[in-house]
Amino acid sequence: MSAPRLKNRHRHDGAVALDDDATLHAMGYPRKLTRRFRAFDNFAISFTIINIISGIFSAFGFGMVAGGPRILVLGWIGVSVMVLFVGAAMGEIASAYPTSGALYFSAGKLAKRNRGAWSWYTGWLNFVGQVGGTAATGYAAATFIQAFVVMQWPGYEITGQRTVLITTLIVLLQALANTYTVQLVAALNRISVWWLLIGMVVIVVCLAFIPTHHQSPSFITHFVNNTGFSNGLYAAMLGLLVTSWTFTGFDGSFHMSEETVKATVNTPRGIMRAIGCSAVAGLVLMLALVYAIRDYAATASASAPPVQILIDGLGTSTAKLLLLIVIGAMLFCGLANMTSNTRQIFAFSRDGAMPGSQLWHSVSLRTRTPVKAVWLAAACSLVLIIPAWWSHTAFTAIVSVNVVGLYLAYGVPIFLRLRLGDAFEAGPWSLGRWGKPVARVAVTWIVFSSVLFMLPQVSPITGTTFNYAPIALGVVLLIATVWWFATARRRFQGPVSYGSPDEVAAMDLI
């Protein structure tokens, strides 16, 4: 059975367009959220969550150990291309189903049978991936804040306990911002784009012209394997985590579609523009950092290798100023990630798929945002960082939870769209005959990367180096499975329709 074609299409300026409210009503939902996001805002949310500065600076040290310059640079290019395939396949689906439910909603609509189960598991994978993103970004910001403190006060000691406490403070402040200053959050998402782009240019220019020493052009072919594993190919594949971790969260544009004007076109464009701009700008930043490395061994062993690169090449004073740009980018990223995370919780709860759904999909009358969902997102993120209290590899494990959870959630609706074949009815933004080939490449990459990032990342494997990502994901999936067979399969049949278009239009709160 094919997905239903949305009605109320009309021609405008020679192109197919959709009335936003009519589209939402055709999917069975009343309008509860304010459409304050225009094309740039929709792009900004995904560009900010991808966040090249945050992603590259937080994972660069791992890449220096797992593959070195060859994987940092060439891996960036290769993974960026694969992510463009994933983004294009997602964008086509987003154009057909522009709703906050995003991935789980489209999975339920695209499945030929067992729609409830497909939707259920996609939603829970998306949930744990989003929570992982909020936790990992907050943890990275805490790490770099402490790096700045050490530069200012050398006697300060960085510990796992302090990192967890600072991460907790960051997440709570971001939750407060999403609760009480919604208009400010929207403005900050716009500002974040320019912060990232201008900040990237400033960092690159400084690294290109101030240092007295740069590596030779052939340095990008330099390969390093200090993971503890003897197999160089395995180490190189692990190094792809740097780029894959950076390119997560672009489903943020999809989740914000109920708050975006002309969502059937602006949402997929936002996804593709965010990925494309991040790919180009990120490659420039990656090259600047790689060629500015002075002493490779000393830099790789530093507590924050990119900070060491800045200190060696620019001096402590300039490095501190640039580090403030990095910290700001990470805080912007975490704020946007929590906003996206909250909308996913809101939509999933709206269809009764989470414990206490009535709470999490309620909307504040003052801000027209799901405030209670904000605090659920914050609480779950804090639970995920608890192992960092004693584990020094917790960050890469949290990153793996983020990458695997999100990409599996991305892959399910793309796979179902592929299985639907020509019966898939695209929206105004369509890949046409390229839809199926693009979806095949996307699914292949998602399966490969998901398996890779569930594997051990450091050898020897001990209690402190163990990659607990499989356990975290396994626990979530086990709970989801037990709950599904115990009660959910009898009451959850996938996305809920609240009535006919006319009926739900009468329920609009705005």
- Give the number of helices: 21
**How would you sum up the global shape?**
globular
Radius of gyration: 22 Å
Query: How widely separated are the two ends?
Result: 34 Å
What does this structure look like?
This protein has helices at 20-26, 39-50, 52-65, 69-96, 102-110, 115-152, 160-180, 182-209, 232-239, 241-246, 252-255, 263-291, 296-300, 305-314, 316-350, 357-360, 371-385, 394-420, 435-452, 469-491, 501-505; strands at 9-12, 15-18, 66-67, 224-225. The protein has a single domain (35-493), classed as Amino acid/polyamine transporter I. With 510 residues, it is mainly α. Strand 1 (9-12) and strand 2 form a beta hairpin. The radius of gyration is 22 Å and the shape is globular. Strands 1-2 form a two-stranded antiparallel sheet. Helix 2 crosses helix 8 (182-209) and helix 6 runs antiparallel to helix 18. The model is unreliable at 1-17 (pLDDT under 50). This is Amino acid permease.
Throw out a few tags for this protein.
disordered N terminus, Amino acid permease, two-stranded antiparallel sheet, mainly alpha, globular
List the helices and strands and how they pair.
Elements (H helix, E strand, L loop, with lengths): L8 E4 L2 E4 L1 H7 L12 H12 L1 H14 E2 L1 H28 L5 H9 L4 H38 L7 H21 L1 H28 L14 E2 L6 H8 L1 H6 L5 H4 L7 H29 L4 H5 L4 H10 L1 H35 L6 H4 L10 H15 L8 H27 L14 H18 L16 H23 L9 H5 L5
Antiparallel strand pairs: 1-2, 3-4
Give the gist of this structure.
The chain has helices spanning 20-26, 39-50, 52-65, 69-96, 102-110, 115-152, 160-180, 182-209, 232-239, 241-246, 252-255, 263-291, 296-300, 305-314, 316-350, 357-360, 371-385, 394-420, 435-452, 469-491, 501-505, and strands spanning 9-12, 15-18, 66-67, 224-225.
